[in-house]
Every structure is written in C-alpha cells, then in structure tokens.
Amino acid sequence: MGRYTQEQTYDQPTVFRMTGAAVLAVRLILGWIYWGGGTRRFIYAPAKLDPHAHSWMANKLQGGMPGALFGLSHVLSHILQHPALVYWLLVLVSAAELVSGLGLILGVLTRACAGLSIALSVSLMLVFGWQGATCIDEWTMATSTFAMGCTIFVAGSGIWAIDSWLMRRNPRLADAGWFRWFGSAPFTARETEGWGKSLAIIAAIFTLASYNYYRGSVYSKFHGGPVSPGKHHISLSQATLHKDGSVTVLAYLDGGTPAVPSHIVAVIVKGQNGVVESWKGKALEKAAKGHIKNIYHYNKFKPGLFGLKAKMGAKAWITLTPATTVPISRGRYTIVFENINGKTFDTKAARS
C-alpha cells in the first residue's frame, strides 16, 4: 500500500511535537526580531531612550504621526507635547518587545508572548505602516510579524521550549485553562482548526485592507497613498499678513521620508497684481532666526543653509519680517512656500 494512500491519525502529544517543530524557525526568528529591538534600546544603543540624545526615539514617533491611522495622529500630537508621557510610552513599548522576544525564543508563556507580538505588529501598522519610499518597509514588517504571531499562537511552542519542560514536570498544567491560553498546552484538533482558519482570515484582511489603503492595487488602482512616504509635503494654515509686511503662518511637514529633512528655499507673498514681497535663501534664514515657535520638542523647523529646513512631522508657527517695512493694503493674499525641488505649497491670507 502506498505511503500516502491511507489516512494516518496521531495522538495529541505527537501533533504537538510536529506542529512545534514546524514553527520552530518562525518562533525563534520572530522572537529575535522583537528581542533585538528591545535590547538595542536598553543595552546596545541606550541613546534611543535618552531624551537628550540625537537618536531619541521620540523623533521617530513624531515622524510617523502624519500618516497614523484612525485619528491616532491627534493622540500622538497630545502625547508628544508631554515629554513624560513620551518617555514612558517608549519605555513601555520597548519593554513589551523585550519580553515578547525573550518569551518566544525560550518558549515560555508562548501564546501570551505571541499575542503580545501581534499587538505590537498592529501598533507598528497603525503608526508607521505608511512609511517606506519604495516598498513601504514598515507595512511589510507589520504584516509579516502579524502572520508569524498568529501561527505561533495556534501551534504553541512544541517540545523545544520551557513551556514543554514545565508540562513534563507538572502534567496537570496541560489541563489548566490559563496555561492553554497563555502557555503552550496543546489545543484540541477542533480548536486548532478553528483558530487557524479564523486567524488566517484576520491576517488576510489585515494585509489586504492596509495595502489597499496605502497603495491600492487590491480593489482600486495603484496610488501613492493618502500620505506620501517619498515626497515631502507642507501644509500651511492660519496665515496672517500684517500691515508692515510681516507674515505669520502655521507650517506642518506632513508627508515624505523621515530619512532627510525638507528644505524650504523661498517664501513668497502674492497679491492680486503679483508678488508683493519674498524671502529667499540667506534672507529667509536670517528673517526666520528667532521667530520660529515649534509645537513639538523633537523634529523641528529651523533656519538652514538654503533658508529653512524641517524634519518629518515638524509643526511650527513661523513669523517672517521684511528688512524694510512693506506697506500692505487690506485684501486677500497668498502665502507660498517653495522647497529645494521647486515644489510649492500655499495658503490664503488676509491682512490683519
């Protein structure tokens, strides 16, 4: 009789051993991903959790804010204005990565750690999923780790784990309800099939819905996303033009890559009859110095070599005063920011 012509059945311990072996590589690699993230901040690169360091993680958090989903940008905006909240949030997330990663590597409370890794994947998607100028890198990481966490949750740790060692030392753990859901006591065949199918459907929805939102190509045409991960965009609002020619405007760098700052090389005021006044290059740098009020403590608008520069997520009130008074009559005007690539951003302004 052929090897595969007769259906074989296996007892629960054998199935547990087989599924554990099948997902062992996934468990170890997912564990290392999160363990590596946590240890970089606590051990190898502690400056990431140092509010006074250039590599302070709050800069990354602010950089993800413009594209955060489900209104989380407003929540992050509030948190970023309270340094103590920022610090403890980043410490908590880093600790969760550390615990989840170590638990998966060692196979201790494996399902709880897998669930924690799933929550971290969702958080990554909600805040940073839009980033990645060429292949939305953060989306790829979030969807992959989400699916890996789901797989480990269903399969458990297998025998090469502390959970398994604990069950051998205390067989009653295998029947303990809490250990089945937080540790690695084997699921029944029905539970395994049910959870496997359910989490596969959830993972598919998570992947396809987020990809369609960020890039289309699922049930809509390909697009660059509601927030561009590659091209800087500046939103201007609440602009006021004063009678002496000075300008006050709220500027927000809400699109583009966090890898490089955006450079603004000119600010122009246009009226009905053309350009009324302008600041360019060194003149813009000089006019802005001392007159930028940043909303957040981390990524900021600053005077730069070409005029102004801003890092992703920067938001600030900018006031520019002309070298000599420029009489401005009442009326409607347009404030234009031009970046180093020649792209312009504008908003309407009325004389105060």
What's the SSE blueprint?
Elements: H1 12-22, H2 24-44, H3 58-64, H4 72-80, H5 83-106, H6 110-128, H7 137-155, H8 162-169, H9 177-182, H10 189-215, E1 233-241, E2 247-255, E3 262-271, E4 274-280, H11 281-288, E5 292-294, E6 301-304, E7 307-310, E8 315-320, E9 332-339, E10 344-351
Parallel strand pairs: 1-10
Antiparallel strand pairs: 1-2, 2-8, 3-4, 3-7, 3-9, 5-8, 6-7, 9-10
Order of helices and strands: HHHHHHHHHHEEEEHEEEEEE
**Percentage of β-strand residues:** 15-25%
Q: What general form does the structure show?
A: elongated
Distance between the termini: 92 Å
Helix content: 40-55%
> Stretches where pLDDT falls below 50 for ≥5 residues?
none
* β-strand number: 10
**Average pLDDT:** 91
- Rg for CA atoms: 27 Å
The major beta sheet can be summarized as: 10 strands, mixed
Secondary-structure class: alpha+beta
Explain what you see.
The protein is 45% helix and 19% strand. By secondary structure, it is of the alpha+beta class. Strands 1, 2, 3, 4, 5, 6, 7, 8, 9 and 10 form a ten-stranded mixed β-sheet that branches. 37% of the residues are buried.
Write a brief caption for the model:
Helix content is 45%, strand content 19%. The chain has 352 residues and is an alpha+beta fold.
Features:
45% helix; 352 residues; 11 helices; alpha+beta
